[in-house]
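Fold this sequence, please.
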Amino acid sequence: MTLALAADTTPSLMMIEAGLTMIAVAVSFALPRLGASWFKRIERGFARLARRKALSVILVGASAFVLRLAILPFCPIPLPFIQDDFSFLLSGNTFALGRLTNPTPVMWTHFETVQETMHPTYMSMYFPAQGLVLAAGKVLFGHPWFGILCVTALMCAAFCWMLQAWLPPSWALLGGVLVVLRIGLFSYWINTYTGGGCIAALGGALVMERSLASREPRAHATPCCWPQASLSSRYAVPTRDSCFRFRLPSCWDDGLSSQRIARPRLCCCVEPCSLLH
C-alpha cells in the first residue's frame, strides 16, 4: 500500500534528468552556435564567481537547499516505502523523543521485522548517525526529511571546498554544481530516508581536502582535524576482536603513501566516532 502510494505521487526524477540531458545534447548538435554570446557572458561571470572561493562554497550549499525546496510541488517530501526507511525513521523518532532506545514490546515475537532489533531493546539495527540527522530535522523543522536536506546541502558545499584544493577554481565550482544537480536533486540520497551516503560523502570530502593540505609540512602541528576524522567514520571497518576497535582500510594508507602525503593521525579520533555510522 505504501509502496504504491509513493510510486503514484512521486515523479521519476531519473526520467526528468534523462529527458533534459537528451534535449541538451540534441540542441548542441543541431544548433551549435545557439546562444554563443550569451554563454560567453555566463562563463565570464562563472569564472569571476569561482575566484571567490568562500562565496562559491556557500552558494553551492545554498543552491542545493533552495532548489530541492523549489521542486517540492513536483516532487514532494518522500514517503517511506522500504524496510530501511522505516528502520531509520524508528531511530530518528526515538532520538527525537529524548531516548536512546525503546523497551521491548510485550508480544515482540509477533511483531518482528527486518532491519530492527527487538531484543534486548527495540531499536534500529543501524548506527545512529542517520537517526540523529532525522531526529534533528523532526525537532527543528517538524519533519525528519529536512534533516536529510540540510546534510545534503552541507555535503554539496564540502565537495566544492574539497575540489578547490585539487582543481582550478572554475572546475571546482563546476564540480560543486554537478554534485547539486546529480546528487542533491536526482538521487535516492535526498529522496529517501535511507540516504546515509550523504554523511559518509561529507566526511570523505573533508578528509580528501585535508590530505592535500597535509602535503605542506608544519613546524609545530600534526595534520589532524577531528571533525574530518569523525565524519569520515564510514571509512573505518571493525576488527574481529572488539566492536569498539576500528582500523582504517589499507587502501587509505597505500593511497597516501603513494602520493607521499604526510598521513594524518586519524586513529585517535576515528575509534570513538566510528560507532556513529
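The longest strand covers residues 116-117. Residues 214-277 form one domain.
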